[in-house]
Design a protein that fits this description.
five-stranded mixed barrel, OB fold (Dihydrolipoamide Acetyltransferase, E2P), Gyrase A, domain 2, alpha+beta, 3 domains, BirA Bifunctional Protein, domain 2, homodimer
Chain lengths: 595, 595
Amino acid sequence: MVHRPGLRSHEAGSVTEADVDAEVTVVGWVQRRRDHGGIAFLDVRDGSGVVQVVADPDEHPGVGDLKMEYCIRVEGVVRLRPTGTENPDLPTGMVEIGAGEIEVLAPAKTLPFMIDDRSEVDELTRLRYRYLDLRRPKMAENLRARSKATSAIRRTLDDLGFLEVETPTLVNSTPEGARDMLVPSRLRQGEFYALPQSPQLFKQLLMVSGVERYFQIARCYRDEDFRADRQLEFTQLDLEGAFWDRDDVLATIEEVLMAVARDIRGVDVELPFKRITWQEAMDRYGSDKPDIRFGMEIVDLSDAVAGSEFGVFAGAIESGGTVRGINAGSQDWPRSRADNMTERAKELGAKGLVWMVVEDDGQLRSPVAKFLSAQEQSEIKGLLGGQPGDVLLISADTWKTAVTVLGGLRLDLGRPSGHDELAFLWVVDFPLFEEEDDGSITFSHHPFTSPASLDEMRENPEQALSKAYDVVLNGVELGSGSIRIHDPDVQRQVFEILGIDAETANRRFGWFLEALEYGTPPHGGFAFGIDRLVMILQGEASIREVIPFPKTQTGLDPMTEAPTWVDDTQLRELGIDLTADSKLRRDGADAGEES
Amino acid sequence: MVHRPGLRSHEAGSVTEADVDAEVTVVGWVQRRRDHGGIAFLDVRDGSGVVQVVADPDEHPGVGDLKMEYCIRVEGVVRLRPTGTENPDLPTGMVEIGAGEIEVLAPAKTLPFMIDDRSEVDELTRLRYRYLDLRRPKMAENLRARSKATSAIRRTLDDLGFLEVETPTLVNSTPEGARDMLVPSRLRQGEFYALPQSPQLFKQLLMVSGVERYFQIARCYRDEDFRADRQLEFTQLDLEGAFWDRDDVLATIEEVLMAVARDIRGVDVELPFKRITWQEAMDRYGSDKPDIRFGMEIVDLSDAVAGSEFGVFAGAIESGGTVRGINAGSQDWPRSRADNMTERAKELGAKGLVWMVVEDDGQLRSPVAKFLSAQEQSEIKGLLGGQPGDVLLISADTWKTAVTVLGGLRLDLGRPSGHDELAFLWVVDFPLFEEEDDGSITFSHHPFTSPASLDEMRENPEQALSKAYDVVLNGVELGSGSIRIHDPDVQRQVFEILGIDAETANRRFGWFLEALEYGTPPHGGFAFGIDRLVMILQGEASIREVIPFPKTQTGLDPMTEAPTWVDDTQLRELGIDLTADSKLRRDGADAGEES
């Protein structure tokens, strides 16, 4: 393999004592220039690190003009730094390069911000000058980590015999819950392609095609309102296999994630990952993506307070609901904080929240204590393991509201900051369907997910389980998968339950239903988001930190200013035109009223 | 590493004598069923190959219902085939599986075509049922080859320390010669993203960012009229490096292509590849992408016929043109074939074509022989190395027309069919600019290509060379690259020569020109098409054979019927509407007049 050194003989960060007396050439950016005792000291940085260059202005009259981030080439001789000036924190800290020749490859204007990890810069400015932002050490490290992640994924799946197959990105709309992004066709004027939300149907077709192990690192698109740290385009590992079952999928994904964690974090994650059912996740953590790095689990108090004189508790249970609590531990709260908790519980959907503090003498202090019998108090305290100083929070509501509210409070109160620990978790046995606000039924994952039992699906669709599963890392859903429906009749039944009549199903998915008719093997797969995985492994709080060129919440690239207005003639070639409203907006922008 | 067997104990193609007496489970598709002496013989195929299953209909009453491409699971015991019935051509040909249990995993309808490489099927039908087409051995092999290619590319570049970086696909228009595909923005109604024709500007920004070695296997988009085997979307290896020069880029690409050729074809390509300049390629082969697997090179006959009495020759030279010829070798032509050659030459832009046949006695037979002196005839024959029986073809025209016409005829007459031999070639020193039909100047590669010499560019732009280079395989241009402009002032000068005034340059590329102001390192790179590379290595004649789900020449997917009409409300959310013409088309389609 030919490694090409290019313009340099040595990478800046690789020059050490072993090179003393050698003539070397380094290239890079001037990270800092100090003038000290009439001599100029330059920290020259390239991708590998930093090396110190020493230049006498008498010999190098131009050295005083070298400003920060000038790109230069330096020829010189390596020598030991004078005793007492070594920097043991730097791999190159024992040596310096005595400059022979210094060439400016490219000057740099005054920077909009400092190239270091210490300066706080607002995100819009960072995105406007992303090419400088990416020079900062942490961002450069994020780029490297992302590359390591995709490399580890591919290496693992290569070794396991998976084929990488590219599926098209100019496709038809598929029903995956978000809006499609559209691409007008010029050759078929007035018609549109959609950009894929995922390669779902194509990867299933590959299973019909006899590709038994498929993967792809796929660009996907969702035109969502940008809440919760989303981007219009994102990248996922997409994977599918035939003639295998859930445990085969899970074991494969575990191998992949273990390899990524090892290459980025240098840790060996324990396999297999823990597994819990969706029901258990909701009961214990009030979430389908529990953060299991800490306890504070939800406890069912219903039996203890079923006959209580306290109407809130008794009433909730009588009306089919539940009373549940968490032990928030020893929280040294003022009263106002407890009030805030109640407000937060209401935001999460609760009608109210009961709080109790375990006093030093074991008694419960609470506004509702007087309504509870001694035995009820004792049982609550016992079930929640309350010790003196502990704060107990209790929700009496429908099951779903009670666990969701307590799950939300649990995260607010107990979640570790950062991601030093890595807690992977499988959540399995998801419901097949969900009820929408208007009472209609929709799919939980997507309409191609296999039911756990056909009989159950037909008799009791609201309760029916699916063969769907999610992988969760530190309370963040990384991805999901399922065993798919491979029988076209079952697929038709699922469409029917979803309220898609036979005619609509045939019009929209007839081609896919037909494909299933030609000896389709049982199959299943998975997909997880690369952006979120790398974000967590790098300890970042936003996916924008691990996406090389992300967009803002309104879909703008502050650097290139994409998207932009387009000539009417270009649009008419595509068989489209702006609406009157859009034209007004554009004319306003042209007049400089809006940018 | 956990390899998951899934539903099977053995892959069908892996069952051998070593497994005799073992209980095995195989899965796959019924490739063939023969009933012979009251016994059913099933060829069961999975991704690894085929194994024979033998079933007695008395024990397996359902076996008679197993039709072609049924997907089944078979449990049974491996045994040696009876003597005389072995098939030495098959890896599993010494054994068979005596069926214990046969389970139908999925039945198959009657197939639209046979799953083999022998049946001729029209392409539209193949694309309509692509999931069955991909089961054919040759297509399955193409999928595997493509996966091997991308795997070899990534492994090589990983080893060389390149970072894989994903650049955005919702971008602004860039000037790369083809129409952009557009994506309307919903959050910024009336504005549009473009899908990238290449990651050109973003990879240059990565160099500004300090990423010194970048690569990406990138999906790109060009809205061209589908001539010459193009697709709206295609995949390229995109690569860029800082602080290196042309030879570094070329050596890296050679490593990559050698690895791909080795993994797909099992051959070691000789490095370095041959190199010729663009000028030499045009002079010798009449093409900037010469197929050097055969000779038939173009020879300059001008000196030999400069003073000829034959007006066509003399006139061409007097008016600044040239007379050139090729020796088409021993072509056993009827006269009509020679006339066809003249027609073909006219298609290629010639005004006419002179042909000569070397007779057994060494004389030239030709309609124009009588106008040429004995010495002229002798020199022509000598320069072209004419032997008895050889056909000599001569064009007298401007330099460009003469070499282009002879280059085209050379391919028609001499090009080997198929791609058994692999002849890689670098073409270097391309012109910087080209003249357009209207006499204006445009870029040859793209406007970010570095001129070979600034002085030359300023003084004589039409003749100026660039630091651009192409890689050619068997006469097919695989890809191109260049050393880029890293000095914003040079970039501004190039824009100016291209007729882009300063204001327009600033409006369209101001952000990029500014990026170049911050210490941009010298850099250069390359991109080549994966589709074409795999096509040639697989010996296919069209890229559609190596694209899993391609579209037709009009951009249609005959399987999913993408693109499609979209609801008006969905369009209005995007700030656009159909033109009146498109609405008419749609209403016609709705009425069933057009599909």
